[in-house]
Amino acid sequence: MKPIVIQTENLPQECTDWLAERCDLHICPANSLRFRELLPEVEGLAIRTYTTVHREMIETAPNLRVVGRAGAGVDNIDLRACKEHGVVVVHTPEANSESVVGFVLTTMLSGLRSLQYVTTALSQKEWDALRDASVTSKEFSETTLGIIGFGRIGSRLGKAASALGFHVLFHDLLQIHETHGCEQVELETLLATSDVISVHVDGRQENKHLCDVSMFERVNPRVLFINSSRGFVVEAYALADFLSHHEEALAILDVHNPEPITNEYPLLHVPNAKLFPHIACKTKSATMNMGWVVKDIDAVLRGEQPTFKVG
Q1: Strand, helix or coil at 100?
Q2: pLDDT of residue 210
Q3: Coil vs helix vs strand at 88
Q4: Which terminus, N or C, of the chain has the lesser number of Cβ atoms within 10 Å?
Q5: Four-residue CA torsion sign, 193, 194, 199, 201
Q6: Which of the residues in the chain have pLDDT under 70?
Q7: How many CB atoms are closer than 10 A to CB 134?
Q8: Which of 211, 199, 194 is nearest to 151 (CA)?
Q9: Rg from Cα positions in the chain
Q10: Is 278 left (phi over 0), alpha (psi -120 to 50) or beta?
């Protein structure tokens, strides 16, 4: 008899079909009646970003053996409860690293250049004025990028930016030996000297509101601030206040708290905040790589060792 597995969010069809051949697959969101009906019998869960696997859910599923997260972060899974109940957690830690780095580089370079578009025929005077308005204050070699968190994504970003000519600083809780030409510094130094700050920390609770009022008081008033890690890492009201008092600063945010954002989100109508709908991982390759978490789900259900097991 095939094991029962629930897929709560969309995966690439090829991955869904592959899993359906090997188990009794049901596709339904975690807030549905069908999900609650199946939970006592389910042996595997395939989830993404917006499904929370909490203790009550785990305790309601006595046959649950594996939770597969299509993505790197597992902060939406109660790992302690899973461990206590013998539930294996698998994920795809390398799946979207290149995609996120590409997003940060694309938006960073766009944010640093004063780009003006031609949308109509122009007189010589207007043409010259548009060219003058396009002057950028610094070249890459004159720009300092500060990276907070130098793990899989942060280190890749540092390596790429360094190759482009940026002076790259980074801060990490661990002593990093392979620095890719970047310089490890204390957080205070990074905040005070960086023209660009990009955040790449993990989803542990200690990182909640890491970027708060006290941090924004210490940064360059013209800073380009980028967050593509977790929404709750940034205290949104603090950033909104900073941006409103420093019009030459710019924030680029791909992750938010909550998602989707609401009308009450303090950064929604701030002119020097560019908000994206959690798309840094949205390349075809990254989406497919994340979807293949189903292979590790199947491995656990067959009693085999998964490739990427948490803990």
Answers
A1: helix
A2: 97
A3: strand
A4: N
A5: negative
A6: none
A7: 12
A8: 199
A9: 22
A10: left
Query: Please, what is the angle between helix 97-112 and helix 152-164, to 10°?
Result: 40
Strand, coil or helix: what is 36? helix
* Cα 48 to Cα 66: distance, rounded to the nearest angstrom: 14
Helix (H) or strand (E) holding 130: helix 124-133
Q: Any residues with CB less than 8 A from the CB of 218 and at least 6 apart, and which?
A: 188, 191, 192
SS3 182: coil
Q: Tell me 155's DSSP state.
A: H
The candidate with the shortest Cα–Cα distance to 202, out of 210, 213, 194, is 210
For the stretch 169-206, pLDDT in tens is 999 999 999 999 999 999 999 999 999 999 999 988 99
- Please give the sequence-ordered ranges of beta strands (E in DSSP) within the chain, or none if there are none: 4-7, 24-27, 44-47, 66-69, 88-90, 144-148, 167-171, 183-184, 196-199, 224-227, 250-253, 273-275
Q: Which residues on neighbouring strands pair with residue 26, listed in sequence order?
A: 6
Q: 112 and 143 in contact (C-beta within 8 Å)?
A: yes
**Count of helices and strands (H, E) across the chain:** 12, 12
User: Tokens 């069908």 label which residue?
Assistant: 34
What is the per-residue pLDDT for 116? 87
Q: How many CB atoms lie within 10 A of CB 276?
A: 15
